[in-house]
């Protein structure tokens, strides 16, 4: 008893204190690489397996292309703003020129009417009246053109805001696609020994499925 019993602990209700971490995928797909076996020791960050990334790579490529298109739309919208703003400035300047011409024509008409036949002929007076009316109408036309040009600038700015919002949406889709692609590689969350492995290479795994511990 002193040699073979007393020195040793015995129990029929033993427990081993340890932590078990289950590994599950966050995306579904076929397993193309399985890099661990049962009871294999791994370090934190070691690659355990890889799910086929091709579908997720295609989604990432498409998201990248969409972001590039959205960026181009923003640049085009900003370019239209610059062009239409220049047109609006030109049309606004045309109002002043038309107004100056109308003021001159109106002044000429008033002057001709004041002197009547003493210094101007009837044909000159008859010409001054429609010319004054015509230049006044041209002022209204210039004002309407300026209003239309400014409205187009506002529309361009709204289009640019829409394009910028599309860029943000495309960038969010790109980041989501990058995340989904990164999830195709499963890493060891901590150091330990691989147990309870139920996955084999070539198997199709589902999101949240327990593959190993």
Provide an overview of this structure.
The mean pLDDT is 84. The chain has two helices and six strands; from the N terminus they run E-E-E-H-H-E-E-E. The chain is α+β, with helices and mostly antiparallel strands and 213 residues long. Helix 1 runs antiparallel to helix 2. The strands form two sheets. Strands 4-3-1-6 form a four-stranded antiparallel β-sheet, with no helix packed on it.
Helix and strand layout, with pairings?
Layout: E1 29-34, E2 41-42, E3 47-51, H1 54-115, H2 122-182, E4 185-187, E5 192-193, E6 204-205
Antiparallel strand pairs: 1-3, 1-6, 2-5, 3-4
DSSP helical segment count: 2
Q: What ranges have pLDDT less than 50 throughout 5 or more consecutive residues?
A: none
* DSSP, total strands: 6
Strand order in the largest sheet: 4-3-1-6
Biggest sheet descriptor: 4 strands, antiparallel
Distance between the termini: 42 Å
Strand content: 5-15%
Give the proportion of residues in helices.
Answer: 55-70%
> What's the overall average pLDDT, rounded?
84
What distinguishing features does this structure have?
58% helix; 2 helices; alpha+beta; single chain; two-stranded antiparallel ribbon; rod-shaped; 9% strand; 213 residues
């Amino acid at each position: 008893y002193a040699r073979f019993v007393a020195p040793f602990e015995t129990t029929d209700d033993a427990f081993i204190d340890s932590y078990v971490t289950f590994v599950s995928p966050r995306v579904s797909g076929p397993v193309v690489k399985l890099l661990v076996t049962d009871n294999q020791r791994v370090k934190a960050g070691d690659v355990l397996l890889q799910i086929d990334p091709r579908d997720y790579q295609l989604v990432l490529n498409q998201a990248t292309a969409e972001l590039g298109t959205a960026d181009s739309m923003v640049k085009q919208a900003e370019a239209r703003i610059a062009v239409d703003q220049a047109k609006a400035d030109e049309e606004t300047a045309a109002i002043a020129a038309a107004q100056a011409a109308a003021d001159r024509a109106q002044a000429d008409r008033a002057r001709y009417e004041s002197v009547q036949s003493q210094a101007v002929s009837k044909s000159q007076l008859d010409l001054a009246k429609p010319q004054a009316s015509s230049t006044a109408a041209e002022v209204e036309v210039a004002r309407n053109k300026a209003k239309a040009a400014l409205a187009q600038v506002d529309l361009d700015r709204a289009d640019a805001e829409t394009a910028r919002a599309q860029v943000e949406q495309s960038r969010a889709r790109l980041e989501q696609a990058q995340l989904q692609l990164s999830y195709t590689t499963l890493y060891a969350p901590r150091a330990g020994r691989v147990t309870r492995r139920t996955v084999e290479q070539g198997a199709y795994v589902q999101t949240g499925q327990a593959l190993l511990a």
